[in-house]
Task: structure prediction
Amino acid sequence: MKRSAISKWNGGFEEGKGSLTTQSKVLDDQPYSAKLRFENESGEKGTNPEELIGAAHAGCYNMALSLELGKAGFAPDHLETKASVKLEKDGEGFSITGIHLDLKASVPKIEKDKFIEIATAAKKGCPVSKALSSVDIDLDARLV
Result:
């Protein structure tokens, strides 16, 4: 299985703009730019690579956790994960230096220790976590 996306870019770094289109067309010429990447309150509508990495990681993690909970005999009512991707100056450029997963879950009949054990295992087993293993990934998991 392969999934793809296309990026187009016009102009220099600071004034340039681009668009992203995914194979599924969920993103279809979605704008992105340096302004959208580095200025949180730019007023422009669009996205950036770190936001998309966060969305991919949160979605993958929830699917992995749902699978692992099912294998252990638990069916989650609700999983909500926020993935915060940290981008920091690194010499002349920038690096993603960490990802924080913040999970709120409703899982009937599970003990807290068992839940933490499964949530941690899902973080390690998630394909996106594996792909991003060069950065620190931490997890706050709580039952609500």
